[in-house]
Amino acid sequence: MASSAFTKAEIEQQPSVWRATRAVVTAARGEIDRLLAAALADPRTRIVLTGAGTSAYAGELLAGELTRRLGRPVEAVPTTDLVTDPEAAAVPGRPMLLVSFARSGNSPESVAAAELVDRLADPAHHLVITCNAEGALSRRYTGAANATAIHLPPATNDRGFAMTSSFTSMVLAAYLSLAGDADVDALANAAETVLDNAADIEKAVTTLAPDRIVYLGSGGLKGLAHEAALKCLELTAGDVLALGESTLAFRHGPKAALTADTLAAVFLSGDAYRRAYDLDLVRELVTSLGADRVVVIGDEPYESGVAHWNVPRPPGTPDALWAIAAVLTAQLTALACSLARGHTPDDPFPAGEVNRVVRGVTIHHFGEGED
Fold it and tell me: CATH number of the domain that 72 lies in?
């Protein structure tokens, strides 16, 4: 396949694979409800969303909304933190529901994190959301008495280097599993609007030729900003530096990253309270960079002169769901930057400096009294 064909196709397939993801979750509803009834019967159960890299950002995006929906705290703890400091996430002797996100399920930390929770939590419950039914994490927990494994459609197991449709499909599957129903067709329509405007995004990015991109969002959209920045770093092999931060935190030091050639993109929250802070920062960025280097990503334009990348928001859609359509703007931006810099988006690290499935990780034994 051509050098960008996998990545481009996987960005474009998202509306269709979301519909297929809905069907998968619907079919697994009985098993999901059985697991949740057992896990959430005890009010002490700690709910942790985990994964590495993009999969970790799926949890960061969802944690706040799931806390509101479930009426109990939901935390995002990356596997990379859980493995290195397990007792900070899994309190020994306390119940825990671990929701694991995994494209391949073969990253060394994926199984290690889940097994550490099995050792420490009492009892441990697992909801595994993966794009690879043959991965190590899936093999470990499919059919286990304390687990439910959701195998997303095979098309979501992205073959491109960077996670695109796998990320959005896992977020959607987790929301449908834990929070309830969603208007998937409306979200797919919103994504199709973004795809219809792909040429405009590519032209804007190519014309501006940013040396770095700053993505900003409030609440759960901070997780979206992190994922958006990672896409740029991955697909440009680090040639275009990217930063993701929350709207308010940006002023506390990270604003130093701005240069005359920076592109700043703000994901506008659908919540009026959070949006007020987002718009305050948009005004500040326009003063710092000029209107031509600021992009507002949302369901309505900011003001004349400031670029607006339209992502329709179906009525009542929370940020965590709207984000799966909004992230397409960042995926398209990263693809455009990669091609403009002469990279191969499907394989931006041909020498293997960074790998699609992480290599080189040694999992050390965790036990009391060891050095």
Answer: 3.40.50.10490
| Conformation bin of residue 105: beta by default, left when phi > 0, alpha when psi is -120 to 50 | left
What confidence score (pLDDT) does residue 356 get? 64
Q: Which domain holds residue 49?
A: 5-182
Query: In angstroms, rounded to a whole number, what is the distance separating the alpha carbons of residues 123 and 129?
Result: 20
Token pair recorded at residue 320: 């965590």
User: What is the rounded CA–CA span in Å between residue 348 and residue 183?
Assistant: 35
**Could you give the CA distance from residue 324 to residue 18 in angstroms, rounded to a whole number?**
10
Compute how many other C-beta atoms are within 10 angstroms of the C-beta atom of residue 64: 19
**The domain boundary residue, chosen from 182, 216, 235:** 182
Cα separation, 158 vs 10, whole angstroms: 7
What is the count of structural domains for the chain?
Answer: 2
Task: Based on the fold, state whether residues 101 and 73 are members of the same structural domain.
Answer: yes
Residues of the chain with pLDDT under 70: 1-3, 356, 368-371
What's the start-to-end Cα distance of the chain, in Å? Answer: 49
For residue 242, the SS3 value is strand
Sheet with 96-102, strands from edge to edge, namely 74-76, 46-50, 96-102, 124-130, 147-151
Query: 190 and 162: one domain?
Result: no
Over residues 175-195, the pLDDT tens digits come to: 999 999 999 999 999 999 999
CB–CB of 314/327 below 8 Å? no
Domain annotation covers residue 368: no
